[in-house]
Amino acid sequence: MVNGLASRKKRAALITGLVMISPWLVNMLLMIVYPTLYNLGIGMTHYSGMGTPKWIGFDNYTFMFKDKLYGKSLYNTIYYTLLAVPIGVCTAMLLALAMNRKLKEIALYRAILALPSVLPLFALALVFMWVMNPRYGILNIMLGLAGIHVDWLGDPRWAKFSLVLLSQLGAGQYGLIFLAAMRGISPDLYDAASIDGANGIQKFWRITFPMMTPIILYDVIVGVGFGLQVFMQAYIMTQGGPANATMFNALYIYNNAFRYGSSIGYAAAMSNVLFFINVVVAVVIFKTSKYWVYEETNG
Amino acid sequence: MSLENTLKARVNKALSRFFLILVCTCFILPLYWMIISALKTPEELALFPPTLIAKKPQWVNFKEAVNFIPFFRYFLNTGFIAVMTCFGSLLSNFVIAYGFSRVKWPGRDVVFYTVLASIFIFLSFPVNTLTMVPLFKFFAGIGWVNSYLPLILPAFFGNPFFIFLIRQFLNQINFSISEAAHIDGASEFTIMRKVILPLAKPCLGVTAIMSLINAWNDFMGPLIYLHEESKYTLSIGLTQYSSAHDVEWNLLMAAASLVVIPEIFIFLFFQKYFVEGISMGSVKS
Amino acid sequence: MLKKILSILLVLTMVSTAVFANGASDEKPMTEDGKVKVTMWTISTGQELEIMQELAQTYNGEHPEVSVEVVQVVGSETDTSKLMAAVVGGVGPDIYFLDRFTVAQRASEGVLMDLTPLVEDRAYLEDNYMPAAWREVVYEGEIYALPFDTDARMIYYNKDLIREAGFDPAEFDMANGPMDIDRFKEIAMALNVTDESGAYTQIGFSPFVDQGWHYTWGYVHDADFYDEKAHQMTLTEDKGVMEGFQFMYDWAKSMDPQKLATWKSTYYPQDMSPANHPFVTKKCAMVCSGPWRMDTINRYGSDIDYGVTYLPTPDKSVKSWAGGWCVVIPEGSKVPEEAFAFMNYFAGEPGQTKYMNEGNHLVTWMPSMENGDFSGSNAHLAPFKALLAEADSRPPLAIGAFIWDQLTVAQDKMALNESTPAEALAEAQELINQRLN
Predict the structure, then answer these.
(1) What is the domain-level CATH number for residue C219?
(2) 20 to 30 A from C173, CA-CA: which of B163, B201, C22, C213?
(3) Residue of C13, C106, C409, C431 to mutate, testing the A interface (most A Cβ within 10 Å of its Cβ)
(4) Chain A, 4-63: which have a CB under 8 Å from a chain B CB?
(5) Contact B125 A275 (CB under 8 A)
């Protein structure tokens, strides 16, 4: 009797649960499973977007090995990611430290710092062109005081870094996430450190930083994902130039899918490879995280 | 000793302020530049070095920008899509997250992994190119191209980021509340609506603002799905200021300002939720 | 196995398309008052768009059984994702205004309808359209478009700046024919001005600005770029291409590549406002551009005393290249006959004459050009008209946009002196060959 009631309850819960999440299952089939299968399939064809795709087996994949532009775009993307992720973490950390100050008007600062992350990227990019003007841009005027002069977008050596700088405008959002993590750290730890005579910098490296490693891990994973698919900035500000210095993988995929005829199959194949790379990188980061990420469980 | 300490604290505060004001200037600069460019004449825009304030603010640029395209028509269209998307997101994500958090059913955690995996897939695909083609083919197949349905309807089926965010929040609400209500004979759906929903307001605030803003800023979706001028959105409208060879720069900036200003208001209005919500969703991950 | 899964998927897609597609009927679209509806898309704006819409109105007045509507859409010369999406979605237009050099590419993709069966008198069209334009609308022997407007490349020069540097602007006069390219360089270099840090504040000329493209300098040096019979690009064998690239390389070298690049990103950044054009702001004394630039200068730089002349060439012969647009019928149109009838009007004598006289454009219908009104606001077009007979057009290959991008990369390398012309061209040629196969 009791057992029957329990199992009936369980079944009721199962039905309730499934009903509640059923929209998600539909979504997953339509937005994730179907596109993934479609791309795996279409990656095996020669396809212009019109008519019937022509089956060509693994030719798109072998073509990638021959295609120097693909190699270049992959190199640029990895270069950008390796630059953007650490800089992004540092900026977010700095912003969080600054936003953690006890000042009367701190709410205002927080609002301003988070504001650019809700603005459309294309608008930011258009305006950023002016900030980066070699002669009249505010950036070079400030650096000029220190005798530094950079042609941000015109010099292939600086172009990728310039786009990394632009993406820092979105760092406010991550700064807030870091701030929340920072506030979650128990004050007792700092008090104990003060008694031991630790100064601010020591406290940061011995307490704040280790305690925040889980959130840094999150930021690194997300950052790698966004880094590998960097597209909009280059599309608007450089269109891949100068001399292919900002020809990123996603931009090359876009060009193949929409600008160069008959290459949707190739674009899909490249997307699949990019996805695979992302999975591998993320798994590696997770596997190595136990060496540097602080785990609370033992404490 | 204490005098030295207060002095130190003051210097510390002053330094923090200096740093924050400097960084904030950098962050507000693009917005400032957009608005100031909108107020300039073409002649003033051509000045090298550029002027930092408009000599004679040309408010008429805003009027011209609004007349250049059917601005208010687009505004209404964009607003409609954004509000519907927002409504769909709130409804679906809350219910789905509830199912993943506050109802205990066999296999739940396994199914939840698909949400995590999807976040990952969303992050790693070059969104516009990879999922765009197959989805477009699908919606074209059922004859929904040139309607708002492909832009709005997906919101009613949940979004892995929001599901994750809301679930994290719901997990933190004490489960004894639900149990008490169960004992009083309330059904799961009643509890969801009457008890948990009011408590979940902060994280629903973030969901609302983020889905509103994403829909408002979306460019690729309207570009490929809407093929009739009367259905266009503002982000499409902005591209109409450039012709084959030239860009009407001051008008474009004026229109861009008008597009962005509602977002700023929404942001300032929901700011508290935004700041809180982002923190909550992430900490426990 | 995978192939099987794919074919099942494809069949499913096709079945669902057939079942659900609302556009499956073959009925002609009608307006409420019983006229056949023809929709045309263009990315043109402003005055150009207005003229097109007026043309449609006039045509509708003369043909009460149809109603042509011209609609402005989003896109760029090479990015037609919007058109592709609409055609696949079954809501494409009946006529599309397309950059002519991409006709071959879009035709090979299967987006464009073959117009050959609709054409009654092919020889008549061939005889009356400008040859360089006609060459671009034919792909594998079939006609895929009707040419519309065209353009040409020339040098604009600022007389005051040239006088200040001690030269006589009369030397540039068109009456003297094209200037010798070495003499041109000599004058340009004398017009460079630097500030105390060595950065250019004014230059004579940059071959990398505005219409100073790879094709421009290639055609100036008598290049062909491709072998019509073999259907191949000939970047490495073509002496003219090599000389054009060498010219760009040497020019950058004599101005210090990085300094010239910095000048460009300062005064000619991407997505710039036309009011900021370096010729308007007097940051360069000469610029290579097209007829439309005259409008910019008159509007924003009314105080500039300027002239227009031929491109400088090594052998003093007249050289230019012509681009331009055309009208096509995308696949899926249910009213190709009606659409083609309007196209004949639009891209024929009535449309082209109006576009030339009122829109200040050069056109491809030669009778319109010959009888055109070259007085008043069109007076400035007269010199360009003479150029068209000599103009080349870009190779009509199915990967036009890809070729353009690779040539642009090679040109960037010239601007930066990153590699020699031979290296850059060999690399571009290799990538293009890979694509073509």
Answers:
(1) 3.40.190.10
(2) C213
(3) C409
(4) 10, 13-14, 16-21, 23-24, 26-28, 30-32, 34-36, 38-39, 42, 49
(5) yes
pLDDT in tens, C329-383: 999 899 999 999 999 999 999 999 999 888 878 999 999 888 877 877 777 777 7
CA distance C144 to C330: 10
Domain containing C92 equals: 36-151+323-390
Domain covering B69-283 in this structure, CATH number: 1.10.3720.10
Taking an 8 Å cut-off on Cβ atoms, the answer to whether C409 and A155 are in contact is: no
Residue with the two structure tokens 């590549």: C257
Residues A6 and A109 both lie in one domain: no
**Residue among A23, A34, A279 minimizing CB distance to B96:** A23
Q: Is the pLDDT of residue B61 over 50?
A: yes
What single string gives the DSSP state of each residue in B268-283?
A: HHHHHHHHHHHHHHHH
Residues C359 and C431 in one domain: no
Q: Are residues C306 and C160 in the same domain?
A: yes
Q: Please calculate the CA angle C86-C89-C94 and round it to the nearest 5 degrees.
A: 50
pLDDT tens track for B233-283: 998 888 777 665 566 778 888 998 998 888 888 888 777 777 666 665 554
Q: Are residues A71 and A28 part of one domain?
A: no
Beta carbons within 10 angstroms of residue B187's beta carbon: 12
Q: Based on the domain organization, do C184 and C315 belong to the same domain?
A: yes
Residue C124: predicted pLDDT: 95
C77 in contact with chain B, both atoms CB, cutoff 8 A: yes
**Residues A169-186: pLDDT tens digits?**
888 888 888 888 888 888
Range of the domain at A285: 59-289
Q: Do B46 and C43 touch (CB under 8 A)?
A: no
Bond into A120 cis (ω within 30)? no
CA distances from C180 to A77, A192, C204 (A): 45, 82, 16
Q: Average pLDDT over chain C, rounded to whole? A: 88
ipTM score: 0.86
User: What is the H or E stretch that residue C289 is in?
Assistant: strand C286-289
User: How many domains does chain C divide into?
Assistant: 2
CA of B257, closest CA in chain C: separation in Å?
Answer: 17
Tell me: pLDDT of A67 over 90: yes
Among C92, C59, C72, smallest CA distance to C336 is for C92
Are B143 and C48 an interchain contact pair (Cβ–Cβ within 8 Å)? no
Percentage of residues in chain C with pLDDT exceeding 70?
93
The domains of chain B are located at: 2-38, 69-283
